[in-house]
Design brief:
homodimer, about 325 residues, alpha/beta, Peroxisomal Thiolase, Chain A, domain 1, two-stranded parallel ribbon
Chain lengths: ~325, ~325
């Protein structure tokens, strides 16, 4: 079996939505997002509830833009970083849409969108949605320290974005097509520093990109953009190095990373860049979708990366397994 | 769109495997399982690592029985109850199989098997695996109390099974076919007692079963078995009541529940029955698969149920959303 799933009848993206928090709203992509929430609580009484509402907002906006009603959506694929994926489950429980929960850490946008695409391409669904979210405060609390502690972060640490994105996928419609998808294999080179996720995830991104190029017999020059998310500044450098050294592939001239794009590195205190499921989700579902619709980009190989650790696994001295799933998006000709 | 996904070319189950812990090995189904681990640690130095190994054992056994090699498996769908699904991610990281992480709490066996079936039926994969696990000790530690605390459990509480199951799905092969699948919608009737999961999940099971019967225009008499998992004794009674009262459907004569089947209620201190992703996974992949192969059962509507809560959501006073995914398995004629 070829590791790339190429669709005979590529499903189309008919609507996208992205919502972000205050800090993301100060970054260079601020004007691309559908809504910026100045209040990190979104009026809720916990960070977890705020994240759930953030994801719900993105999904509802995407559905509205698609012109569909909830009962026309056949299936929703979503997940997030919170324990037991409650960002998603509590966010969507009122929507009454058949729901398939997914877990891919920060790779969830690619994981859910790839799976939604397979369902629509095969006729198992007519309309599907893929979504994910992350929240700086719920993540810091769960994975690192309470915000009130004011812990210092290392230079390799990335900032979890407060952001959510949603994509509506339909058959024979849309200005942007999903050409093909590839599912990642877990890669673990023994990185144990939970403040250096970029290094833990770079080998997975390299493996997925190399497998995709080999399987499709294509070259980096065939793509307008190979977009990873979210390796940040440290992980991106490693990715370029790994691809060159292990696979003799140079993608530097077509590569960018969502973690590098979200914030102004000079003015915003974000160390190695952005991260979190919502980082690549909100950028794919705003800037990238717009550029594909407007033919500024012809094709984008989107490769979202995830670090499959838990605080418990780290405390038990385990290394950090990484994964990366890929999707080739093409503007309709 | 019809909420049931019915396959034109039903994929087949070509191998299954089930492994369980000591307590499950004392129950009425002991002789059905592939392996019983008398040592709950499986020789590992943490409960989490023990669970990961348990899941890996089930997957490796299933692959071996199928006669496949790891590099012939196109995709693996798996998830579990542990934070960030580390039962799965650390269990399978060495296998080098493309991996799609799923989260459905105790509904994960149906969720992962339904999704694997869609991939194989559509030709997106030739060989797929669905798997899940749970471990009594890792669950008690994470969701309730440290084992050493010796807390008393309420009569409505279920015992999380130490168990894992895996299913290999292939095209045009196998003695058991996946006829159709249905994805659940989240149901939340406001239950807040985290020691009464059966009650929280019963409405989801009722909704999925009622939608399946309505959509396929079938009647409970058309099935040899409608098998839920894992409502236990309390939730099963509620399910029968809800289906009668809200949907005028009586399934009592064809219903059983994996949570009721795993242990001897009289001799084993399990209160309202078994639970955990591994409960329905190990029973489906042993007893039920054998009975379908041997034509003791012609068809089984398998409806695994999940409670989509987290300890954090419970502490924040949230109610417990439930979900149930369904699969119709048929013995090949």
């Amino acid at each position: 079996m070829n590791s790339v799933i190429k669709f005979k009848n590529p499903p189309g993206v008919t609507a996208t939505a992205s919502v972000v928090g205050k800090e993301e709203g100060k970054g260079p992509l601020a004007h691309e997002f559908d809504e910026i929430f100045e209040d990190a609580t979104l009026g809720q009484d916990s960070w977890e509830k705020a994240e759930s509402l953030l994801q719900k907002k993105a999904i509802e906006k995407a559905i509205k833009k698609s012109g569909r009603k909830n009962d026309e959506i056949d299936i929703l694929f979503a997940g997030d970083l919170l324990n037991q994926c409650t960002g998603s489950t509590f966010g969507i429980r009122d929507l009454q849409i058949p729901f398939a929960g997914m877990y891919g850490a920060c790779s969830t946008m690619a994981l859910s969108l790839a799976t939604a695409s397979v369902f629509v391409a095969s006729g198992s669904a007519s309309v599907a949605i893929a979504a994910t979210s992350s929240h700086f405060c719920s993540s810091e609390k769960q994975f690192r320290f309470p915000l009130e502690y004011g812990g210092q972060r290392t230079p390799t640490a990335q900032r979890t974005c407060t952001a959510a994105g949603a994509t509506v996928v339909e058959k024979n419609k849309g200005k942007v097509l999903i050409d093909s998808v590839i599912y990642g294999k877990i890669q673990d080179l023994g990185i144990t520093d939970a403040n250096n996720m970029g290094a833990a995830m770079a080998p997975a991104a390299a493996d997925t990109i190399a497998r995709y190029l080999k399987s499709t017999k294509t070259h980096p020059d065939d793509y307008d953009l190979i977009l990873t998310g979210d390796l940040g500044f440290v992980g991106s450098e490693l990715l370029l190095k790994l691809l060159k050294e292990d696979h003799s592939v140079d993608i530097a001239h077509v590569h960018n990373d969502c973690g590098k794009m979200m914030f102004y590195r000079e003015n915003q205190d974000v160390h190695a860049g952005g991260s979190g499921c919502g980082c690549s989700a909100s950028i794919l579902n705003s800037l990238i979708y717009r550029q594909l619709c407007e033919k500024e980009l012809r094709n984008v190989l989107f490769v979202a990366t995830g670090a499959l650790l838990s605080p418990t696994s780290t405390m038990q001295g385990e290394s950090i397994p990484g994964i990366a799933h890929g999707i080739l998006l093409k503007g309709k000709e």
